[in-house]
Amino acid sequence: MSSISNSYKNKSWHLVSRPTREQLAGPQNFTLVEGEMAEPAEGQVLIRHLFLSLDPYMRGRMNDGKSYAAPQNLNETMVGGTVGEIVASRHPKFREGDRVVGMGGWQLYALSDGTGLRKLPANDSIPVEAYIGPAGMPGITAWVGTTQIIKPKAGETYVVSAATGAVGTVAGQLAKMAGARVVGIAGGADKCRYAVETLGLDACVDHRAADFERQLAGATPDGIDGLFENVGGDPFKFALRRINFHSRIALCGLVASGYDGTPTTLEDMRMVLNARCLIQGFIVTDYLPLWPQAISELSGQLASGRIKWRTSVAEGIEGAPEAFFSMLKGGNFGKQLVRLT
Length: 341
Prior knowledge:
Shape: globular
Strand content: 25-35%
Largest sheet: 7 strands, mixed
CATH topology of the largest domain: Quinone Oxidoreductase, Chain A, domain 1
CATH superfamily of the largest domain: Medium-chain alcohol dehydrogenases, catalytic domain
CATH class of the largest domain: Alpha Beta
CATH architecture of the largest domain: Alpha-Beta Complex
Mean pLDDT: 92
Number of domains: 2
Oligomer: single chain
Number of strands: 16
Radius of gyration: 21 Å
Order of helices and strands: EEEHEEEEEHEHEHEHEHEHEHEHE
């Protein structure tokens, strides 16, 4: 075991206050804390993080209310997925130099007893950051919603919101592999062009356009058979107006309407009743037994080039809050990461 020295100086973002109606969520809710790392005890490892994943679910954790997961504790390191390298180990299952994926949080280093850590292949053909992106939780979310809930078929029309984001990028490509006609929804001409020209979608509609509803109707002349929804707001509302009888909707997030925005109303849900469609909300951690299969399939498709992906990378731990809130407003293009080395 290597000895721990004062060269391992940590920086960690703590959540110190919660958003309110008067003051919406922002960087002011966080403070950067510095300190030295302790030596790992017996059964522990010390991990130096390489990349931090920024994801919309983190915004929900900032609130103090009932949800599928407990709120983030105040004055503690903000939750977050990480990929890193073990720099010291007193754990029998991990060695120095092993690269691991875990929930290390918004910080440079983390001590772990190994719970929740997953060791990455030593000689892999895809970048390590892919395991917190298209071959990690976001990609698995897309895989579950597409293959286990919507189950698109050849000839059907499948719509995916945030089509160039971390989840939507994978969801749209998986539906294309299944033979569906895929229409993306994204923010801006550049993202829509990328969705068609690089990801291979059949069409993509800009939700920022003044005539978005008309354009969506034009792109889905035969209605919508499968809807992968992770945004909410107007894109969800207008897509609901296009759903076909007995269509399937996988609902994994409401980033545009569930936190600081306007919620989807019961009146909007009338279309669900009229169409007698299946709408299933899901949390990807409910499907943990399927994760090995999903990771195996996704990593293979990434290695072969069948799945394309893109990242937005903020440099340094100091930039994490600004990058996070920019992502929530659509400022990212692809998977939002923070490089920590």
